[in-house]
Amino acid sequence: MSSRSGHHQKHHHPQDHGRSPARRPVAQHAAPTAAASGEGYTLVHAGKQVRFGPVVFWIAVGTVVLLGMWSAATATYFAFRDDVLTRLIARQAEMQYAYEDRISELRAKVDRTTSRQLLDQEQFDQKLDQIMKRQSALESRATALGAMPDVATTGSIKPQGRADAAPSSGTPKPSPISDTVIFVAPPDREARLESRAPLIAKAQPNQFAKAQGVDNVLVRLQTSLDQVERRQVAALSSVEDGIESRVRRMRGVISDLGLNMAQLEAATPRSGMGGPYVPVKLAPDAGAFERQLYRININRAQMQRLNQTLALVPYRKPVVGEVEFTSGFGVRSDPFLGRPAMHTGLDFRAAQGDPVRVTANGKVVSAGWAGGYGRMVEVDHGNGLSTRYGHLSEIGVKVGEYVKIGQVIGAVGSTGRSTGPHLHYETRIDGEAVDPQKFLRAGVRLSAG
């Protein structure tokens, strides 16, 4: 082993002084020894000495210590290696499973979104198809409304020179004594084209959907169609009410005048018509609009027949302008004798030469001088009805001639027993004179609607 001292010395026996020392056998495997001095460390092994400086020595010691620590760490690592790997593998597996679960969730979400989009698109297409069918039905209704002819006045007596005048923009007002009621159709033409606006949404649904959303588009389309349908229903109701009111007034006038409807219809001349009989049928699945339109067509046909019948009833005024009577029907003081006398007609104030017009369709049965009537025209309207126009200054028709409502048959004059220019007008039933104002009031009633 090693020991520290100032010098390492060899000890000699006193008898060995002056001679060479004898060599002693040295063990071949002697253990190495190290000795320390003030300048370093000496390592002795098998008779050999190796000196180390302090720095090198401590480097060697540190290396040995580090190698020992590394060996201990390595041993510890291998001792716990299996647990670490197991935890790492478990962690990786957990992360992989979580990742796969997330991918599956996202795929399911994408599938649900895609299915929802497909379902929404299908629902949108179905709703849009329903809207288009409804729009087509509304357009058909608008066409049916537009095809209904306006009921024009029949046999109107208009003043000469005013036929070419521009029609007024407003609703025409009936004159005090008119020939027939003026039927004004409701403004259904506006509803005919309004239902075409939603076609834009059909042409470009995607742009509408992107700009306002599918629901907003459908709501706007439904709202637009609802407005069109309400206007169409209102227009149709107005037409039906107008026709029904007109028919009631016509029947009431004929009843008030004491005329026989069957006889009047039998006396009405028939124009050239014909064709096979095809009854009008209403479809079993017809809606409220179609049923209402069917009723309107039936009532309109009745109104047309009544118009033709009333064309033979003299309820119009024979002169144009404001009505002013100079003498009424009934007992009066005779203008020449001053004694009570029966006046069988109405005297209309008029100027010399004013046109006199026939008040209903008929046939001229008398045209010439007739005693106190002076120049007189008598027209037979059939069914016992006739009218007389007296004191004419001139006559414009001949016996046997058929005349139409409003046709000029002569001019106002003062012939016969007359004190001045005026028109003597009579209405007769079965040859007996009746008050013409009864017929004129019926004309006012018809014109009031």
Tell me what the structure shows:
With 449 residues, the chain is of the alpha+beta class. The chain contains 8 helices and 15 strands. The strands form 3 sheets. Strands 4, 7, 8, 9, 10, 11, 12, 13, 14 and 15 form a 10-stranded antiparallel β-sheet that branches. A 3-stranded antiparallel β-sheet has the order 1-2-3. Strands 5-6 form a two-stranded antiparallel ribbon. A hairpin with a 2-residue loop joins strand 2 and strand 3. Helix 5 runs parallel beside helix 7. The radius of gyration is 64 Å and the shape is rod-shaped. The N terminus is likely disordered.
Give the rounded overall mean pLDDT.
75
Give the end-to-end Cα distance, rounded to a whole number of Å: 149 Å
User: Major sheet: size, sense and barrel closure?
Assistant: 10 strands, antiparallel
The unreliable regions are 1-23, 25-30, 152-205
Helicity level, as a percent range? 40-55%
Strand content: 15-25%
Number of strands: 15
DSSP helical segment count: 8
Q: Which term fits the overall shape?
A: rod-shaped
Q: SSE string, helix = H, strand = E?
A: EEEHHHHHHHEEEEEEEEEEEEH
**How large is the radius of gyration?**
64 Å
Category from helices, strands and their pairing: alpha+beta
List the helices and strands and how they pair.
Layout: E1 33-37, E2 40-45, E3 48-52, H1 54-147, H2 189-194, H3 199-203, H4 205-212, H5 214-256, H6 261-267, H7 288-310, E4 325-327, E5 330-333, E6 340-343, E7 346-349, E8 355-357, E9 362-369, E10 375-382, E11 385-395, E12 402-403, E13 408-412, E14 422-429, E15 432-434, H8 436-447
Antiparallel strand pairs: 1-2, 2-3, 4-7, 5-6, 7-14, 8-13, 9-10, 9-12, 10-11, 11-13, 11-14, 14-15
